[in-house]
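Supplementary Methods. Inverse-folding protocol.

Structures were first reduced to a discrete structure-token string of length 173. This string, shown here, constituted the complete conditioning input.
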């Protein structure tokens, strides 16, 4: 379960709750326009673990060591349209300059490489598909020593991620 601590988007329930001083969590699970029951079960387990950790319910510990909290993340977007083929998978650790994938123009067969601008972890990514310029292709979680008050939202994708992740507001680790 990847945790991204980011500012809420205006017009969302999480934004309204946070403004009212109510801690809020958004869980994103599975791919776009798909209901993946295993991902839903995994998300429920994560929310149950969170409320147990906060002392809101009493339950046995569900998971072992916690994942890092990402206070900074960034989307790598397509500069060109074409067919996106990934060279990394969800959860992969990448270094700055690593090849994330290629976009191939089906008419000219010319390929453009997408390289990671940061060192971090792939916490979301598009499926191999046709993409247009500006399409959010890879979401990189960047480990920092930032605190919640120093959260940086490098990019707002407007798309669902393919891996379960949680955006947290108004809550401590």
């Amino acid at each position: 379960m990847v945790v991204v601590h980011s500012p809420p988007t205006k017009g969302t329930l999480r934004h309204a709750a946070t403004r009212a001083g109510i801690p809020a969590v958004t869980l994103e699970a599975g791919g776009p326009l798909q209901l993946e029951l295993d991902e839903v079960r995994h998300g429920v387990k994560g929310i149950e673990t969170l409320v147990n950790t906060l002392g809101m319910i009493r339950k046995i510990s569900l998971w072992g060591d916690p994942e890092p909290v990402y206070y900074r993340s960034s989307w790598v977007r397509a500069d060109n349209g074409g067919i996106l083929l990934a060279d990394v998978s969800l959860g992969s650790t990448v270094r700055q300059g690593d090849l994330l994938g290629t976009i191939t123009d089906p008419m000219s067969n010319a390929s453009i490489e997408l390289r990671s601008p940061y060192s971090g972890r792939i916490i979301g990514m598009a499926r191999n598909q046709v993409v247009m310029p500006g399409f959010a292709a890879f979401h990189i979680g960047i480990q920092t020593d930032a605190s919640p008050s120093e959260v940086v939202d490098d990019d707002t994708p407007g798309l669902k991620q393919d891996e379960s992740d949680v955006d947290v507001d108004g809550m401590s680790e």
